């Protein structure tokens, strides 16, 4: 990861495998009665969320705490932007306090890369604009691997608003790097203007694609897309691309459904599908903690070689 | 601009530019140039004068003319002033610049024109200004073009944005033609470009940045060609950036329409791949385009479809260029790099031009478009002494200092280029000597 985790495009297969293997060890820790090890004791992790995301933030903070790191939440919100503090000043302020890693979420693509230029500490991208959300893609890959053993040769459909989705960009990169065959399923208005950067196929017909999928990955549909003339209505979107119980029945019995959350029930995913055992949404959330522990450990810990003894340390007395 | 002597009544010291290769619209020849009282007094061998400027082995040409300079004054003096921008221009070999009207307040009335012209009198180069086509550049009401034209404004533009309304643009063209003025257009249909921050294509898709399609520019080029045909008025296309635009302008020219065009150095030098690191130094409007567009701009300059190289020198402070890519203001510096980039990219790399063609596109053709009779040569007796001396062989590496500009948004850092300005003479005064500004 070269000291940072900024984008899935920086990850090769070996790097992804390493993170997923370490995540297996972290999942074991998470299954203990007291899920806490001292691996990152004395290290400080800051979560710097310029854009609200309670789920991702809690997941990262839980991961850091389970490794005994100190966690600081730096509240930015809109107020300090209004006060005129630049991202660079914010980073310099945080670094002056002495931190080891900055977990950054920002509504603008590229901000983690900028932060990494200014910061000495490790930078972890927790989602930037439409660009990348590497830990989401890693937890998705982890979840698929846990179910199917490997992504090699799997047929994965990513359905919905790919254009505005950092999850989609990251999933495409990680899934294809691990050997999966990815099909994007969306109306042309919700696809990036060029698909040249990726090895993917495209369909505008979910019903045609569904029977061939091992994984149907649904993206969150933002309501404001209607006003941007990208779709006529949510109703029409759901009619064409919503995963209903009827459509689920056309999938292979072993095929699964995934969603990065939060779900718009009744829009991209029907209630019955969300509740079905075929939906791995809660697995994704649980695996998110293990994967983020692995990422923080690999960036801040004593090194891969030290992993064995460290994670096998006894549970901490509380 | 004119050089004044230290003692009123005394004649200014005469200046001789010695040993150069004179290049102007009439051709090339060797010779010295004697400058007396702001004018060229003699051109020939073995001349002498009070001050001798060495041009041995160098090009002596009419001073460069920039049709597209953002001097930021009034209103954004932290980014640039007429003085600092004027100095950057002199160092870049320019003797005249045309200030863009997107200042605060907008240059849309005689009062603001007077203010900018007054500021320009202390600059080392001739500062001319454009005026806005519409009040406040808001695209709703015609600005008082006649009162600005009376002060010498010859080009009107809402640069920074294009005039969106078709009827208003038609009327503006008709009105301006009655004043003998030219309308210059920043071609960008905002309904296609709003919220975008780079070229739409492979790189915007990869980077997750909202992209502006080439068609945002091309649709307005197409409309304005139609309106030029309809009204018979002169239209100048600013900073063309796409292959489609170049093709349409070529068509309009062969149809005999009164259209002219410029292109900026960054649009024949850099592609949208430069945005990969999310460094907003590379953010500009119109955006850096694809390889094919860059090649088309160079070709358009080479075959004369595009008349002029204009810098679109657009200073922005480091703080604003450190904003996230989608929030940072667009624009990059150009005045001190344009000539060397043109030699390097257009003469050496793509070989679409000779050095004399570059000088045509940077001096006499833009001077003609702007109607600046004292600029653009030829280097002949009686002409105003607005001259540049260029060491065409000098190779140098562009640094991040930003030169004389108050800003440092240089997208060419580390680039090796050929061609350096040795001396600039403006109104007979040596404003750049051995590569250093004299004031």
Radius of gyration of chain B: 21 Å
Rg calculated over all Cα atoms of chain A:
20 Å
Order of helix and strand elements from N to C terminus of chain A: HEHEHHEHEHEHEEHEHHEHHH
CA-CA gap between termini of chain A: 33 Å
Class per helix and strand makeup of chain A: alpha/beta
Number of strands of chain A: 9
Helix content of chain B: 25-40%
User: Greatest chain-chain interface?
Assistant: A-B, 24 and 21 residues
CATH homology superfamily of the largest domain in chain A? Aspartate/ornithine carbamoyltransferase
**Strand order, sheet with most strands of chain A:** 7-6-5-8-9
Shape of chain B: globular
CATH-level-4 superfamily name of the largest domain in chain B: Metal-dependent hydrolases
Mean pLDDT of chain B: 96
CATH class of the largest domain in chain A: Alpha Beta
> What is the count of β-strands of chain B?
19
CATH fold assignment of the largest domain in chain A: Rossmann fold
Which regions of chain B contain 5 or more consecutive residues with pLDDT less than 50?
1-8
**What's the number of structural domains of chain A?**
2
Tally of alpha and pi helices of chain A: 13
Which consecutive residue ranges of chain A, at least 5 long each, have pLDDT under 50? 309-314
Give the biggest beta sheet of chain B: 9 strands, mixed
